[in-house]
Q: What sequence folds into this?
């Protein structure tokens, strides 16, 4: 089943979670807060332990903040390190075992994501939205992006799935992207990494579904993060670009996961419309993206709105 959300169509969460959730935090603070408020037992992970401590103090709920487990983790650290993290996660809460694995770690530009200082990351988030043509991508950028977005995520999944299979239950929630469903001119490598995630996890679910393993893939469009509330994809302030709030995205993600949806789309228009076209009328969808692809990169270079309806219609307002 595939479900698409815009700014309507989903009820508020009116239930409680009683699961052990392993959450990789990157722009995932709001998601952690909502899980905690619903009574989930949380293991939160990221590279920066100080940032994890900060997030932990903000969590409230039946098991938060006192029982929240901090587990520093670098997805690019190699299989031995990832296996150690899995064993630690599995042993938490009297060896209860992880019920939900939330894959929420990703990056596009290695020159930014390799920095360890969280403040520097927040200061430079706008650079993430710079568009680079597919032919301008360096080998370093390609490898670094896939090491985190794909290789590290898949390795961690494979290691944790073994424990889930022994228990006969487990649920992977994967934060993918609209760029993993449609062409994303100017973001070819990032898009490729998200397409790879979608292919792997849909296949994983098909292989293991009858053994109790579930997978929910969430494909958000542009999201307004709490750390840079006024930022947009163009790097401008005060733009008319519509971005779903991180709070709403987190709420819809939890609804999709707890209702067992296989895939969920979260975005405003026109991104949602493009996703529908590519999914259900691919000839028209691809024709549209071919029509605007080069222009989208030009608009990004001028710090314009790269998700504008005007861009789709060929108007100059996007600039």
A:
């Amino acid at each position: 089943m595939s479900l698409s959300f815009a700014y309507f169509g989903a009820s508020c969460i009116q239930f409680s979670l009683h699961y052990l959730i392993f959450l990789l935090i990157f722009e995932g603070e709001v998601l952690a807060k909502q899980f905690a408020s619903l009574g989930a037992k949380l293991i939160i992970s990221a590279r920066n332990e100080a940032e994890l401590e900060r997030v932990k103090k903000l969590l409230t709920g039946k098991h938060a903040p006192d029982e929240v487990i901090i587990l520093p983790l670098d997805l690019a650290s190699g299989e031995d390190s990832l296996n150690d993290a899995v064993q630690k996660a599995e042993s938490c809460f009297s060896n209860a075992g992880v019920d939900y694995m939330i894959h929420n770690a990703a990056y596009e530009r290695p020159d930014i994501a390799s920095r360890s200082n969280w403040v520097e990351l927040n200061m430079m988030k706008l650079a993430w939205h710079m568009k680079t043509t597919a032919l301008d991508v360096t080998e370093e950028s390609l490898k670094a992006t896939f090491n985190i977005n794909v290789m590290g995520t898949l390795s961690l999944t494979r290691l944790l799935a073994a424990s889930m299979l022994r228990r006969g239950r487990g649920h992977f929630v994967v934060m993918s992207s609209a760029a993993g469903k449609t062409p994303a001119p100017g973001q070819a490598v990032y898009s490729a990494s998200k397409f790879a995630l979608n292919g792997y996890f849909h296949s994983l679910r098909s292989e293991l579904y009858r053994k109790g393993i579930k997978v929910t893939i969430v494909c958000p469009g542009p999201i307004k993060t709490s750390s840079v509330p006024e930022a947009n994809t163009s790097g401008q302030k005060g733009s008319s670009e519509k971005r779903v709030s991180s709070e709403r995205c987190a709420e819809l993600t939890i609804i999709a996961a707890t209702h067992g949806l296989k895939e969920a789309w979260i975005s405003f228009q026109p991104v949602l419309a493009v996703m529908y076209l590519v999914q259900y009328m691919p000839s028209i969808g691809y024709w549209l993206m071919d029509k605007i692809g080069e222009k989208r990169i030009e608009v990004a270079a001028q710090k314009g709105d790269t998700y504008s309806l005007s861009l789709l219609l060929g108007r100059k307002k996007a600039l």
